[in-house]
Design goal:
Blueprint lengths: L6 H7 L2 H16 L4 E11 L6 E10 L17 H7 L1
Antiparallel strand pairs: 1-2
């Protein structure tokens, strides 16, 4: 099952300090060849409306597993998509 998070969902649980710490760990591992990164992917699909497209952008990577315990812990939170399904 895919969990779709809104910007508001992310802002409630992830601080800028946590983001920077995770990025520092990840890029340190990447520089040491202990992590992988797939460049951003853009998928465009034309809509029925004239000249309009749906654009899906994705990006992912895998940090070195030996450092996952150093990542900031995110609190459990009910996302807006869970609330929509419940309501």
């Amino acid at each position: 099952m895919t969990l779709i998070l809104s910007n508001e969902d992310v802002e409630r649980v992830l601080t800028m300090q946590d983001s920077l710490k995770a990025m520092e760990i990840t890029f340190t591992d990447y520089a040491a060849a202990k992590a992988v990164n797939r460049p951003r992917s853009h998928t465009y699909t034309p809509l029925d409306e004239d000249g309009k497209f749906y654009c899906f952008k994705s990006m992912d990577g895998v940090p070195g597993s030996s450092r996952l315990d150093q990542w900031p812990a995110l609190p459990a939170s009910e996302s807006s998509s869970d609330q929509a399904r419940a309501g």
